[in-house]
Amino acid sequence: MSPFSFDEIDQDSTKAMDVEKSSVPHDKLSGIESGVTTEISEAQSPLQRWARGIDRVPEELRQPNISLRDYCQMGLVWFSSNCTAGSITIGILGPILFGVGLNDALVLSVFASMLAALAVGYISTFGPASGNRTMVFIRYTMGWWPSRICVLLNLVIMLGWGLVDVLVAGQILTAINGGGMSVIVGVVVASLLSLLVVIFGIRAFHTFERYAWVPQLMVMFILIGLAGPSFDTRLITTGSSSQVKNADRMSFFFLAFSGPITWAPAGADFYVYFSPNATRWKVWLSATLGLGIGTAIATMLGAGIGSGISANPSWTDAYNQSNGALLVEIFRPLNHFGSFCNVILALGLIANNVAGTYSAALSFQLLGRWFAKVPRLIWTVVSVIIYTVLACVGRNDFYDVFENFLALMGYWVAIWVTITLEEEFIFRRKSGYDWTAWNNPKLLPIGLAALAAFVIGWGGSILGMYQTYFTGPVGKLVGDGIDLGVPLGVSWGGLAYLPLRWLELKYVGR
């Protein structure tokens, strides 16, 4: 049997309702993914056959081998999804919002991106190992009912990023057109293109992400060439004291960290069809490098652009309009070719949006049994409608709100990843996981320990947070304010989980 490859699916294989009869494993997997078949039973109603998007993919339905090409594909999924204009906007905030110098911003962008990628890479390893989606796997730590809190929070993340992606794309397309086309039209175009890719499932998703990075990276290099001479290499971190400067550096670091780490709740979603014999450290390395490098490139580019805004009047005027207008202004010297590059940059946001929309649709199915009976296709359309409407109606406000909300989402994800690490390497180091128990509440943890630790961790994050809408008492102690929400949340949640989980296992037994 040949190594796993999405290129090897027989295009003429079978129609949807005949997928189970196919002798080609990839056809059967595509059927399960689309919701037209399942590994559980052949005698099912049409509604059941169209509602299996979250089912575990068992080992016998996945090819036993994995090649170097497959590991490369694992990395390209994350590279394509994050080497985009969305990450550029985060980097811009370093010099503009936090007053961080260029050299500091570049270094912080790299370390923040790689640290977040380590966490996402770790969660991604559970995809091939378990065959379960991330928000299904989360039940093995949070339990049956408490896990739905994380599912709801993941929906906020994925739909929020969808809002940002289509809004920035709309801004770019509008600026290219000189204002002749409204932002709403640009948003709708980006949303429809995202839907077109996601609607065809995992095969189309992997094929799209395999090649999407090529034009994106080429445009990034052109952007560096155009904007590079305007980067202010003499810009240093401002602040009335060293304490204030360090606080601002730290706050930007955790903002840059919060962007990529929010992919962790979707980390395993895109790997469930890969071989269960995949080497875990190779899966981790592929995902970590793909996400870390892709995010770092775009965030550093954003930091460079941000350093030159104040010294370049045309950039300043454009930035005051929107992030999209700023990117269009940078490409203006290239005339029509510059407009073409902007279109590529705008459409490149779809690579990020496709992954988030795909994960959001799965999360909807995990809200309850009735939600699971609705096909993933329907939830995909619902997800696109939600963030499209929000982007259109609140295009002047929602983008800023979500940028401020981004760090808050990073808090809970970091806490959950910490609890997951403790669960695996301390409490399950001998017993391991029973992946077949994914849909049986009686075999899963009750989740009280994880829920209590999660809430305690949130308490620490609130005390240490530093956002425009609220600054915690700990966050006020350093400089003019410092964002310590992630380290406090991780330490409080992690320390609380150890004794609570021990007591849960002792008195509950699971």
Automatic annotation (TrEMBL):
InterPro entries, sorted: Pur-cyt_permease, Pur-cyt_permease_Fcy2/21/22
Subcellular location: Membrane
Pfam families given in the database record: Transp_cyt_pur
Lipid bilayer topology: Multi-pass membrane protein
Keywords: Membrane, Transmembrane, Transmembrane helix, Transport
Transmembrane regions listed in the UniProt entry: 76-100, 106-129, 149-173, 179-200, 212-231, 251-272, 284-305, 337-356, 377-396, 402-422, 443-464, 484-503
Domain of life: Eukaryota
Bias kind Basic and acidic residues: ranges: 12-25
Region: Disordered, residue numbers: 1-25
Family classification: Belongs to the purine-cytosine permease (2.A.39) family.
Matches recorded under PANTHER family: PURINE-CYTOSINE PERMEASE FCY2-RELATED (PTHR31806), TRANSPORTER, PUTATIVE (AFU_ORTHOLOGUE AFUA_2G03000)-RELATED (PTHR31806:SF8)
Protein name, entry field: Permease for cytosine/purines, uracil, thiamine, allantoin-domain-containing protein
Source organism: Aspergillus cavernicola
Taxonomy of the source species: Eukaryota, Fungi, Dikarya, Ascomycota, Pezizomycotina
